[in-house]
Amino acid sequence: MAARLTTYVVVGIVAATLIAGLIVGAQRDDNDGPVDLIVFNGKVYTADASGSMAEAVAVRGNQILRVGSNREINRLRRPQTVVVDAQGAAVLPGFNDASTRFIDGGLALSGVDLADATTIEEIQARVSGWAESHPDHGWIVGHGWHPAALATNPTRQLLDAAAPDRPACLLSNDGRVAWLNTKALERAAATRQSAVPPDGAIVKDSRTGAPSGVLKGTAVALITNVMPRPSREERAQGLRDAIDEAHRNGVTSVRDRIERADDFILYDAVRETGDLGVRVYASIEADGESEAETFKRLQSLSDRYPDDPVFKMGGVSIPIDGPVESLDAALLQPYDARPDHAGRSRLDPDTLNRLVRLLDARGWQVTLDASGDRAVHMALDALEHAARSNTAPERGRRHLVEGVALVDAADVPRFGRLGAIATIDPYGAIPTTERLESWARAVGAERASRAWPAGSIVSARGQLAFTTDWPASPLTPLVAMQAGVTRAGADGLPEGGWSSSERVSLKRAINAFTSVPAFASFDEQRKGSLKKGMLADLVVLTTDIFDSAEPDFSRTAVATTIFDGKIVYQRSAKSTN
């Protein structure tokens, strides 16, 4: 008995010695190797499963070496180490925008920015000012105006007053409405006799019957098809501009909904030169082509652009409906504004179920673009049908329902049960007077109170990702986070926010722009949180957004953006050698 006890004691001592040696060895590895960058004196939110906090981060190469206290991390400092003093402000994982048209956003930066214009007069002033400063441009192109925000219906004559001498096309925030002047309308060849494409509209003057200058839905293609196409060099410049804009706003990863095959080649070329300063998860849209064509294109792109930490292929997007405000969302009950109309879905349920099932069987990630409650119901039905029909792939299912604006209460728990990730644009929940009135007119007060149900989805254990939907809205995750957390405008009104039950916590909002999009792109083992071995993508803010129950985003900006272990943006000089 004594001999056996002695054996146990010896084994225990040896095991303890080995464990201690491993710990000391790991610490020695940290201490002995080069430390390239340190961020200290911060309120570090790691965005890990426990939501833990720290004070400092050490980086070696392009990976995080350690996260810990100021004392622990500063001990690793070497003469060559770049040091960033966060000055007590928040330090977060680099932001990951779950849905953009990234290169198009960069191109839009050179056009007329109408994102926050709320009156005809303001739009006219911006268009005429841009035209005066760009006399050599053959076209005037603007982006981002909100049709529901205008008290007056846009017409070609109103745009002619600001731009009479060349074609002008102003695309709405969601890209589904185009406002043209007379010269652009002539280029589009839209007349009284023009055939209206399915799911489109050529708005007519109620007095004359002539086109008013507004195209909706698929009819927008009448003008976009005749507009000058950006050259490869222009798109390359657009990508460079988009990367700069991303860095200014702390964005280090995006999902890009790519429409042009050439953009895959462009991304790959920029990656090869080492100049792709964001991580891109690219998806294509299955709209208007056969199943066979979609499957062939997906396989070809996946083979050519496999898993990679900087650029990779990321599945297929299927549009189901349009936005609520323009009465294009598919609803379970008719619109209050039009009792005979409940919106149209682009696909019938059987066709959608079959397509999703076949894509799921081949292991593709599917993103279903669904805004209205009937479209969301169809999307969840299709995902459920696929789960019943197919064996789950080895890596699991991470399908998304994107652009969620209105969900029937009975469908909210299905997100969690199905493991579907809901993507929401919090900008939609910024309660401007125009937006509140537009929603109330469109769907009535009760349904409007359930708009953008982020809180409900989280409470039902659903995964929530946030997006700015750039260029539909500005590429500013901090503003979008404020909307998600407060459901109020910049003025703090309405008090308590629009439908305060749909607010989410600050950490949940940060996760929706960091760890959840990383999970959605099958990248949670390399990015989205701050811990040892993860890619060193970080953002340092100018304030501590954790210092109060109601964070004040109005005085918060991005101070420093770090991508792949290197400082790529600094608002002010905070780093020293």
Broad structural category: alpha/beta
Total count of helical runs of at least 4 residues: 18
Ranges where pLDDT stays below 50 over 5 or more residues in a row are: 24-28
Strand order of the largest sheet: 8-15-16-17-18-19-20-21
End-to-end CA span: 63 Å
**Major sheet:** 8 strands, parallel
Strand share of the residues?
15-25%
Radius of gyration, whole Å = 26 Å
Range of helix content: 25-40%
Q: Kindly state the mean pLDDT as a whole number?
A: 91
Task: Indicate the overall shape.
Answer: globular
Would you count the extended β strands for me? 25
What does this structure look like?
With 577 residues, the chain is of the alpha/beta class. 34% of the residues lie in helices and 21% in strands. Helix 8 crosses helix 9 and helix 11 (349-361) packs across helix 12. It is globular, with a radius of gyration of 26 Å. Mean pLDDT is 91; it is low at 24-28.
Keywords:
single chain; 577 residues; alpha/beta; eight-stranded parallel sheet; six-stranded mixed sheet; 18 helices; 25 strands
Secondary structure layout:
Blueprint: H1 2-32, E1 37-40, E2 43-45, E3 53-54, E4 56-60, E5 63-68, H2 70-74, E6 82-85, E7 90-93, E8 95-100, H3 102-108, E9 112-113, H4 120-133, E10 140-145, H5 156-160, E11 168-172, E12 177-180, H6 182-188, E13 200-204, E14 211-217, H7 221-224, H8 232-248, E15 251-258, H9 261-272, E16 279-285, H10 291-304, E17 311-319, H11 349-361, E18 366-369, H12 373-389, E19 400-402, H13 412-418, E20 421-424, H14 433-448, H15 454-459, E21 463-466, H16 477-486, H17 506-512, H18 515-520, E22 538-541, E23 558-563, E24 566-570, E25 575-576
Parallel strand pairs: 1-6, 2-7, 8-15, 9-10, 10-11, 15-16, 16-17, 17-18, 18-19, 19-20, 20-21
Antiparallel strand pairs: 1-4, 2-3, 4-5, 6-25, 7-22, 11-12, 12-14, 13-14, 22-23, 23-24
Helix pairs in contact: 3-8, 8-9, 11-12
